[in-house]
Amino acid sequence: MPAQLYEVDPIAVRDEIGKERLIELWRRMLTIRRFEERAELAYRAKKVAGFLHLYIGQEAVATGWYDHITPGVDATVTSYRCHAHAILSGVDVKELMAELYGKATGNAKGKGGSMHFFSREKLFLGGHGIVGGQIPVGTGAAFSLKYRKTGGVSLTFLGDGATPQGTFHESLNMASLWSLPAIYIIENNQYGMGTACHRANAVDSLAEAKAVGYNMKAYTFDGLDLFASWKCAQEVVAEVRRSSRPVLVEAKTYRYRGHSVSDAGLYRTKEEVERYKRLDPIARVQQALQDAGWLSEAEANAIDEEIRARMAEAADFAERSPEPPLSQLTADVYA
Amino acid sequence: MLDASTPLAPPLKPRRALDPKSEPINGYRGVDLGDGRQLLSMRMAICQALYEEMQRDPTIVILGEEVAEYNGAYKVTKGLLDAFGPERVIDTPITESGFTGLAIGAAMTGLRPVVEFMSWNFSFVAFDQIISNASKMCYMSGGAFPIPLVMRGPNGAGPRVSSQHSHAVEAIYSHFPGLIVVSPSTPYDAKGLLKTALRQNNPVCFLENEMLYSFEQEIPLAEYTIPFGVADLKREGRDCTIVAVNRCVHWALEAAEELAREGIECEVVDPRTVKPLDIEAIVRSVRKTNRCVVVEECYRTGGIGAEVAAQLMELAFDDLDAPVQRVTTTENPMPYAANLEHETLPKPHRIIAAVRRACYRSP
Amino acid sequence: MIHELTFPALSPTMSEGTLVAWRVKPGDSVKAGQVLAEIQTDKAIVEWESPESGTVRELLIAPNQVAKVNSVAAILTTQGEDIAEAVARARAANERLASAAAAAQQPPAAPPPAASAPPPAPLAAAPKPAPNFAASAPPAAPSAPAKPARGVRITPVAARLAAAHDLDLTRIRGTGPDGRIVRVDVERALADGSARRAAAPAASAPPKLAVLRPDGADQRVPFTPMRAVIAQRLAQSKQLIPHFAVEQIVDAAALVALREQLNRLEGLRVTINDLIVRAAALALRAHPRLNATCDGQSVTRYDSADIAVAVALPDGLITPIVFKAHAKSVRQIGEEIRQLVKKAQEGRLQPAEFQGGTFTVSNLGASGVASFSAIINPPQVAILAVAAIRDEPVVRQGQVVPGKTLRLTVSADHRAVDGADVAAFLQTLRELLENPATLLA
After folding, report:
1. Beta-carbon neighbour count of residue C213 at 10 Å?
2. Rounded to an integer, what distance in angstroms lies between the CA atom of residue C343 and that of residue C311?
3. Which pLDDT value is given to residue C186?
4. Choice between C165 and A131, residue whose per-residue pLDDT is larger
5. Is position A330 within any domain?
6. Does residue B114 belong to the interface with chain A, where contact is any CB pair within 8 Å?
7. Would the pLDDT of C144 be above 60?
8. Closest by Cβ to B145, choosing from A120, A142, A143
């Protein structure tokens, strides 16, 4: 059974968000995209190496949810596709770009790379490289926030590919048993690397079908639609803050790029990618802003130019930054 | 490595044993002997360390299977639920990967969790969390997220529990930078080292031993801690150094008594922490004896003995009068049959044979 | 704005790729994200999307061309700028990239052959079975406080203790496994004084450091690589192998006469040495105990007499081999030796030409020496030293008459052969040389 999609009235949500805030959300989504494009360009110029998992296409998901939390009071954690979450947590893009370049000024001093962005101050518990490895970590954050009575909630982002992992089951079971303020957001971009979701999961509806096994509430929303993401987040975050009962959420989304930069994408058709590109979450918000008369094309282009300039500046900063000194090779192995 | 603040270890043998009819044999309170010392067992010493540190630090919580209402599968946490309540002493489902990962997340966000593995054999279910998350988080976050986490529980062979319940994990976990591996052999060491573990910010594998839980010793009533990376001389001798950890310390001491009757005086060095390893203390002893036998419950390939032997090559090559000998668990899964189990473990008869080899005596 | 689009790395391991086909042509207007070309990576054919928007002005990589990552592949402009300079710069940069990659793939430029050819290892460098001591010879230890004599088994601490008291390790009985000397053995020797060195003064006096005259009249000449190898191998040979020498005097009158006869023949040139090598080969066939190698544990005897001939070089010597000398005529042997000597002097000997002999002949006859003994060329068990043929009185049929004599000295490895073996070999050799017609058979 396909899940019941969380329904929103786009005009009503648009008006609820309001002009300035919506422009700001659009700006954040565009920042993520331009960052990822810059990263990809740098990768292709061999400035960036290793794995590089891009968030292009999925921007509406994290952007909608981070708008209802306070990074630092609330904790977030995600997988290796972590650039957007670090940006939305409030980490400076220069620091992130420098990390991609493997520089001393990087977010993890050049030790982590693309998959491991962090922020202690913003309680961003990281990008994690092992599929499903972050789910208990996010659950632990919820445990800690509850224990310390901070009023914070924990958002654990994971891919559709992580739901068959044992840690998913173990974490949700504990979160429900102990009523932890934990929200699990499955960003279902349809493919776990090259394996289509239906080839890896026995159920169609990841949240709805699985949540019942943990006595949890479930939500499913259109992850390509910022309004759905934002509105669903608003409801769920408020509910979890109030009830301290965990919730499982599925975002139906899509990534326009490969699993990582080296993915030739032979497991899906070009037509499919094109079809989803027509649903581009950023273009749709821009259209909504234009329709509302809140942002002209010229204004949008100006903002885009400004963001591109910021990214160029970040790349320049990364380029000019020194490599980590060899003396730091074994620093921070132990605290 | 030994500094002035480190108290001298008390004698291994207590003046008397606990009387199970009138005295506690578990829980966190030892029997006050009235002279500044208390008599307690290993399980009580561990419990006492947890109790004292939980009183001192409200961010310490204990998570594990049967730790609360059942008072611990081996009664190590007896009394702690009553003392601290279900918010701090938490029974988990059987979900090692889950609760270990949860403890890591809690450690990243202000808590200092203690995870009990009912046995370290079950830690393999949580291996990814221990290795990929706990051991690397501090480094890969550029120092932003240290993991103040203690993972503890019984390690090594239990009594006739066969293949899947008899692993000794010192060598496995020592392999990974970022982890600290503690493997105490006495109540005194266990308490002092566990208190240290609960006051520092790295993930610690604290390896106990079911067969030592009832081992009794007189320890100070006054507070003390023991630093990591400081070995303890459990016996002095001039002829052969025996490096042994955990339960093997007691087997080594037994072997040493027997060998003394042949005129071979063994020095038994107990590193107490396998990582960091007090290699200086081992080298010091080998400079005196020129011989070394390493005894451990881990397997031979890549075991503690392999590491100690390699480091002795590097640091004390010109002091050796014989090849370093290793006495380890033989390379087979633990068999159930009593005679086979006996031969599999690094028991005194095998230690004696190895020391004789090192001393060029006939077996 | 001018955008120089660089050829992308589309997989982590990609350093170059083939541009399969352009999907755009100059003059086309493209949007960021639009496919520019298909690129064959090391994994698959992948579409390359334009990172920028603009008008395609110049394509710098031809279809099916292999291009380095970061080469400029295309130039786009947004306002129709002049791109002449950008194109020139891009072409130059691409060439630099390509040549840098080519240089990285080439081995470093070969130095001139004379300098680059490693000095041929003197004496049989990789002899038949690897000799035991050579195989176990440790690389120069960084700092060995006490290096026991070869063949002595001793623990590190015992060696250190023995060295500190300058004990003679060969006089300490080892009680460890296989006679290994352990600490207590050294302590016992110290206590009873049994292993003190007999003649200590020479050994214990520190070696006098040479003081060189400041005017440069004295010179210190470091070993050439060849000299160092000779020094090492011959020192090993002399230290390890229990040498003994046996000398024989041959009446060489008939030999000299035969040589003169042969050399009168058209196109033939025979030396005494050629005849001796032939004679030695035949004698070795009759006495295979000397046609052998020894590894300290066993002796290997050979069917074929592969005779190494010592050749002097300006600073050293080398021993090329006449393989199957027993099956070759004097003339063949002579031609081969002259070829080998020439190659040796030109430094062109191949390892196969100087490795694997079974016996060595060293001839100082041309220098007029009366007699000498040679150091064994390990792992061979014997070496023949050939002196000059001299005019000397000889006793023939009870009469002292003018004659020609030749002194032959065989040094042999007493581990492998005994005096009687060498004596028998020399007897045969003498008979062959005194009746040289047999050498032509």
Report:
1. 8
2. 11
3. 93
4. A131
5. no
6. no
7. no
8. A120
Check CB contact under 8 Å for C69 and A46: yes
Domain C242-440 CATH (choose: 1.20.1250.20, 1.25.40.10, 3.40.50.2300, 3.30.559.10)? 3.30.559.10
Catalytic residues of C: 414
- Structural domain including A136 reads 10-319
Assign residue A38 the CATH number of its domain: 3.40.50.970
Those chains having 3 or more beta-carbon pairs within 8 angstroms of chain C are: A, B
Confidence of residue B2 (pLDDT cuts 50, 70, 90): very low
Q: Closest chain C residue to B288 measured between Cα atoms?
A: C157
Q: Residues B181, B267: one domain?
A: no
C125-197 CATH choice from 2.40.30.10, 4.10.320.10, 3.90.79.10, 3.30.390.10: 4.10.320.10
Interface list for chain A against chain C, based on CB atoms closer than 8 Å: 37, 40-41, 43-46, 49-51, 261-262, 264, 266
Looking at the structure, tell me whether residues B205 and B237 fall in a common domain: no
Q: Are residues B165 and B67 in the same domain?
A: yes
Q: Give the distance, in angstroms, between the CA of residue B93 and the centroid of all CA atoms in the same chain.
A: 26
Per-residue DSSP letter, C167: B
Average pLDDT of chain A?
Answer: 96
Residues B42 and B171 in one domain: yes
Nearest CA in chain A to C68: A45
CB under 8 Å to C243, separation ≥6 — which residues? C375, C376, C411, C412, C413, C414
Per DSSP, helices labelled H in C106-207 are 113-116, 132-136, 156-164, 183-192, 200-204
Pair of tokens at residue A213: 């096994």
State the nearest Cα–Cα gap between C37 and chain A, in angstroms.
Answer: 14
Is the Cβ pair C8, A44 closer than 8 Å?
Answer: yes
pTM: 0.71
Q: Mean per-residue pLDDT for C71-89?
A: 91
Spatial distance between the Cα atoms of B49 and B198, rounded to a whole number of angstroms: 9
Give the chain C residue nearest B324 (alpha carbons): C155
Quote the CA–CA distance of B140 and B144 in Å, as a whole number: 9
Confidence check: pLDDT of B4 > 60: no
> What sign has the CA pseudo-torsion B277, B280, B286, B288?
negative
Rg (CA), chain C: 36
Q: Chain A within 8 Å of C31 (Cβ-Cβ)? A: no
Q: Does B137 have pLDDT greater than 70?
A: yes
CATH of range C2-104; options 3.90.1150.10, 3.10.20.740, 2.40.50.100, 2.120.10.70: 2.40.50.100
Q: What is the pLDDT at residue B59? A: 98
For tokens 């079911």, name the residue.
B210
pLDDT at C302: 92
Cβ contact (<8 Å) for B146 and A335? yes
The pair of three-digit structure tokens given for residue A170, joined into one six-digit string: 């173990």
Q: Is B71 among the domain residues?
A: yes
Distance separating alpha carbons of residues A134 and A128, to the nearest angstrom = 6
Please identify which of the residues B165, B254, B265, B280 carries the catalytic annotation. Answer: B165
Q: Per the structure block, which two tokens stand in for B136?
A: 């690397």
B64/A contact by beta carbon, under 8 A: no
| A324 domain-assigned | no
Say if residues C51 and A43 touch (Cβ distance below 8 Å). Answer: no
Q: Give me the interface pTM, i.e. the ipTM.
A: 0.93
Average pLDDT over residues C191-207: 61
Note the pLDDT tens digit of each residue in C228-243: 778 888 888 888 899 9
**Tens digits of per-residue pLDDT, A291-300?**
999 999 999 9
B102 and A107 within 8 Å at the Cβ level: the answer is no
pLDDT tens for each residue of A205-252: 999 999 999 999 999 999 999 999 999 999 999 999 999 999 999 999
Query: Which of the listed ranges A118-127, A269-278, C80-89, C431-440 does the model predict with the highest average pLDDT?
Result: A118-127
Q: Do C182 and B360 touch (CB under 8 A)?
A: yes
Residue B10 lies in a domain: no
C431 burial class (0-12, 13-18, 19+ CB within 10 angstroms)?
middle
CB contact under 8 A, A332 and B139: yes
Whether A151 is covered by a domain: the verdict is yes
Residue A156: inside a domain, yes or no? yes
Residue ranges of chain A whose pLDDT lies below 70 = 1
Mean pLDDT of B117-126: 97
